[in-house]
Amino acid sequence: MLPFWIALQFLSSLPVRLPGMPEPKQLGRSLLFYPLVGLLFGGLLWLLNTLLAGAPPLLHAALLLTAWVLLSGGLHLDGLADSADAWLGGFGDRERTLLIMKDPRSGPIAVVTLVLVLLLKFTALLALIEQEQTLALLIVPVLGRGALLALFLTTPYVRAGGLGQALADHLPRRAGWQLLAGCALGCVLVAGWGGVVALVVASGVFVGLRGMMVRRLGGCTGDTAGALLELLEVAVLVGIVLL
Predict the structure, then answer these.
(1) pLDDT, tens only, 104-152
(2) For range 175-200, the mean pLDDT
(3) Does residue 15 sit in helix, strand or coil?
(4) What is the pTM of this model?
(5) Cβ count near 118 (within 10 Å)
(6) pLDDT tens-digit readout, 209-237
(7) How is 20-89 classified by DSSP, letter by letter?
């Protein structure tokens, strides 16, 4: 179960402590547990949603969004902010884009992007509560973290060395594809038509954003992976509401 604890420590703000520095093989296998971490998040959000039944809808949605952000510690939002700055400030240049991503400071475009994404997520959650489609809380975190697994299965990691390279080099690929297929089937079984809509939207967003990464960078980074997760989650939530 060490790969699961590695995944949980990396993807969440939950108090998880590892006995030591994991081996590269264990790091690679931890990617297989990313959807399971998403399912854990989804279960916690669904439980919170149940406990908040009867609360004013605006407060209900705000508390769900707050819990969603706190569970990941804002890790992926940070990647989204860095990617937004880099994509605008990089002017299409690969090396400049990668350099800006390493800058810990956030510019105006990063702030605007975060505000818009969180606003869309909040309003989508509010609509889901009003439409009583809260099963989306179970499947969206799974799809978001499954997208990270799919990204590492299909896309080169462009920064040599470090954690991301170890993940990419030691990922069990056959098991990864089997797990993604199981996640897709599970989403449909759990959410029915909503699960089908979620899969279609998630696939479209994944293909589009992955293509942008490959054209600009020749692959992905940790920041672009975080941006993918956040944008995919909000797109799926909006898609379920509208479709």
Answers:
(1) 888 999 999 999 999 999 999 999 999 999 999 999 999 999 999 999 9
(2) 96
(3) coil
(4) 0.96
(5) 16
(6) 999 999 999 999 999 999 999 999 999 99
(7) SPPPHHHHHHHGGGHHHHHHHHHHHHHHHHHHTTTS-HHHHHHHHHHHHHHHHTTHHHHHHHHHHHHHHH
**Model confidence over 71-82: pLDDT tens digits?**
999 999 999 999
Both tokens of residue 14? 């939950």
Report residue 110 as tokens: 């990063």
The 8-class DSSP code of residue 161 comes to S
Q: Which residue segment(s) compose the domain that 100 sits in? A: 2-242
CA–CA dist 82, 13 (Å, integer)? 20
CA atoms of 194 and 144, how far apart (whole Å): 15
Of the candidates 168, 24, 27, 25, which has an alpha carbon nearest to the alpha carbon of residue 5?
27
Q: How many CA atoms lie within 13 A of 10 on its CB side?
A: 22
**CA–CA distance, 65 with 74 (Å, rounded to integer):** 12
Q: What is the pLDDT of residue 18?
A: 85
Tokens representing 130 are: 């009003």
- For residue 220, give the DSSP letter: B
Q: Give every CB contact of residue 119 below 8 A, 6+ residues apart in sequence.
A: none
